[in-house]
Amino acid sequence: MRNYDYKKFYRNVPPDQVEKLRIFRSTHQYKHITVDGITCKYISCGQGNENLLLLTGGTGFSEDFFMHIMVLENEYQIICPSYQPVATMQQLADGIMKILEAKNIHKVNVLGVSFGGILAQVIVHKYPGKVNKMILSHTTTTSPPVDRAIMLERGKRVEKFLKIFPFLPIWLFRFMYKRQITKLADTIEFEEKEFWKAYLNEMIFYITKEKQVSLYKCMVDFGQNYTFSRDDLVNWSGKILILESDNDPTFNPFEQDAVKELYPQAHVHTFKSSGHLTMIVKREEFISVVRSFLKEK
Asked: Are 66 and 21 in contact (CB under 8 A)?
């Protein structure tokens, strides 16, 4: 169990907001399973007749969903994995399948945010019989009509970074990552802003170079080895919800529109002026939209 230094990261945050995180961490301990020699960590909690798989974004930490979990665990059995250090999307998907198998879960609803939305697509296309509903939030895909030149350029940037990344001192990596995350948060005003900036700063401190290299490798793997088509899910009876914002700086309009064109049957909800961090910036609306979709028959 990690010893958290709340004074170091949360000294300028209202105590009542920090206490919510303390309580969550004390009541939602990580569970572990070993898959192909690699330990997978996940949060398992909740109640209800349906299962909800939560797939976080680029930090790779389950706790990013902690405020959502505290609301939704009253209605759903929740599985929320942290991402283990692997090199391919298939390895990530297989690890999650092993977790579901260990929990005797045969079918889930899936909510994936950003990188988690990419992973959600891998899971649904590979194991459609395991998924009831899929929610893709602020994400993209690699399939037509994505502009291949844009995708290749993004892939080249990631591969170039992977070559120099091992030589970066950890303090410089953390500084670069913090600047990137802070930029996303500082462009928008929202409640609990100081808390979330502190939380993300804490997560950056705990991210290892091994874990970050793994996430980059998985992104490269997705771009090089996965192409989906509308026909893939023609016999799938599940439903899809796409969540986006009208000013997401992480994925350009081509990449965002590609998801909607790949899944023309999907419902689409567009948040106003919430950037890439909508699940935080407009948490209550985000949860409300997710809950309504999950309750649809």
From this structure: yes
DSSP bridge partners of 45: 78
Residue 34 in domain: yes
In this structure, the strands spanning 38-46 and 77-81 are antiparallel
Asked whether residue 159 is domain-assigned, the answer is yes
Q: Examine the pLDDT at 91 and tell me if it is beyond 60.
A: yes
CATH code of the domain covering residue 43: 3.40.50.1820
Cβ neighbours for 8, distance < 8 A, ≥ 6 positions apart: none
Domain of 175 in residue numbering reads as 27-295
Tens digit of each residue's pLDDT (9 = 90 or more) over 242-282:
999 999 988 878 888 899 999 999 999 999 999 999 999 99
Contacts of 83 (CB under 8 A, 6+ apart): 56, 60, 92, 211, 214, 215
Output the CA angle 250-243-69, nearest 5 degrees: 100
User: Which CA distances in Å does 236 have to 23, 48, 141, 187, 294?
Assistant: 40, 24, 19, 39, 17
CB atoms within 10 A of CB 122: 22
> Per-residue pLDDT tens for 197-213?
999 999 988 888 888 88
Number of domains forming the structure of the chain: 1
